[in-house]
Design brief:
single chain, mainly alpha, about 140 residues, about 0% strand
Amino acid sequence: ALRDHCPGPHAHSPSSPPPVSHSSAARTRATWAGGGDDCHARSRLPTPPTASPAPGEGPVRPVSVSLHEGTIAALRERTGKRGMSAYVEALIQRQLERERLRELIEDAEAAHGPVDQAAVEAKRALLRGDASGSADAA
């Protein structure tokens, strides 16, 4: 029965998997996308991998970190004993965002060259409403 509807160039029985004649990575990608040339891949492959949660998403889990006593004291002074986790979470999220922005800037500069600092200053002046900024750089 399976042999009759198998679209591939291979014939196989339900008890034996089809031979791997195509790129398994390409077949897996196509299968996850709902297509593919392996008629039995969906029944053989596990469920599609789920992406890791983005920063700030997913379940909260306790972790252990080591901090200097002075850092802990300053943290407690700002947050109190019960607000430390939320504060540290926000700091880490902000740092990850800054690192990702830095990577995007580096990628853009690699593709388009360095940023013209005079143009940046002129745009900042326009945003501040500073009349001394050059309108030509905008």
